[in-house]
Amino acid sequence: MKRTSKRFLVDHDIEQIIGWQLRLGVITASVIVGIGGLLYLMQSGRQARPPYHQFLGTAAGFTTLKEILTGMQQGDAKAYVQLGVVILILTPIFRIAFSLVGFVLEKDRLYICITLIVLAVMMISIFGGLKV
Amino acid sequence: MSILAFTLILLAGAYLAGLVGSLTGLGGGVVVIPLLTLVFHIDIRYAIGAALLASIATSSGAASAYVKEGITNIRLGMFLEIATTIGAVIGAFIAVYTPTNTIAILFGAILLFSAAMTIRKKNQEALAVGSKWSVKFKLNSSYPTKDGVVPYQLNHVGAGFSIMTLAGIMSGLLGIGSGALKVLAMDTTMHIPFKVSTTTSNFMIGVTAAASAVVYLQRGYMDPGIAFPVVLGVIGGAFTGAKLLARIDPKLLRYLFCAAISFVAIEMIYNGYHHQF
């Protein structure tokens, strides 16, 4: 019984931490997207709507971290929005990392392996043969 | 139309999409795609990018509350995320070679299926004895209910895992959470009580969507000018929806919305068939 109650405690703590981390990620991302969006409206709100029926792909820019950081240095509001977008995408990826910590604390080898596999798939999709 | 006017209209539309997605249980992303393509005539690839972001935002927001309540089965979610993330990466790669009209038709079909799934008979029973694999992978657990903590076991782990891979592929290809397929795998195939399956599915949607979102971001599917109003609008709508759900039981509303969404799905299929994407 003691063992199960300890496991419950660790599980419970990790649940609280994951819950808190997910909320923080979404709030941070939305605040940055919101600030960037307001700047974007101030910079170019009066211009005509871009032709979104045509897909530009990577030509539109802000598809790599480098382009985003350069854009931010130049004060381009779109780059700030895109930074918020990146933080939003990173939120669930960080959640996997937090789960990994939880399983390490519980010394649950099977789930440490499973979590590492999921993280590896994520890394493959981030870096696998794509420009970064 | 100026960027300011476009942004404000899109913000209002995304708010409604988030609200409908939350009240029906379909999720915010799935309603965003027809809104952007059919109403705003935006290229479906930009719509997919924005919908993925909406899915990540709403599922992470909701998951943070469910996880704290202890209903979500984190081990089961982690285990099945192997299937959904691999599927999502495959889906995002197939997407390059798939004509946009085919994507629109497939999206319509999945949307019809999802609408039907939300009004299905839900599995309330907890399975007493699970399969060998459910023990091996420590997937059996318990969850809190009004009548105390209820233990449950599960079976058909292999079949559930396979459907999850398919759910991942659809998620990567179409930019949606594919919550309906996830619930089909857990609820109908693995016999998990629906409260656990819906919260665990929601828990997994963020990670599944992020797996393909990183690919799409690098391909230019995510335009800041669309992402900004869509993300904020959908989060706002989902938040209002969650508040409303705590006070009213929207059974009638759910049927009405599901009927409306079925019409939208048919329009997506029709337009895709006539090569309008």
UniProtKB/TrEMBL annotation, chain A:
Entry superkingdom: Bacteria
Entry keyword set:
Membrane, Transmembrane, Transmembrane helix
Which parts of the chain span the membrane according to its record?
A: 20-42, 79-98, 110-130
The keyword Membrane appears for this protein: yes
**What Pfam family does this protein match (any one)?**
DUF1634
Q: Which InterPro entries match?
A: DUF1634
> Which protein, by its recorded name, is this?
Uncharacterized membrane protein
Q: Which organism is it from?
A: Chitinophaga costaii
From TrEMBL, chain B:
Q: How does it sit in the membrane?
A: Multi-pass membrane protein
Where is this chain's protein located in or outside the cell? Cell membrane
Keywords of the record, alphabetical order, are: Cell membrane, Membrane, Transmembrane, Transmembrane helix, Transport
**Where is it predominantly found?**
membrane
Presence of keyword Cytoplasm:
no
List where the protein spans the membrane. 46-67, 79-97, 103-119, 161-181, 201-218, 225-246, 252-273
GO CC terms in record: plasma membrane
Q: Which Pfam families match?
A: TauE (PF01925)
Q: Which family does it belong to?
A: Belongs to the 4-toluene sulfonate uptake permease (TSUP) (TC 2.A.102) family.
PANTHER family linked: MEMBRANE TRANSPORTER PROTEIN YDHB-RELATED (PTHR30269:SF23), TRANSMEMBRANE PROTEIN YFCA (PTHR30269)
- The name this protein carries in UniProt is Probable membrane transporter protein
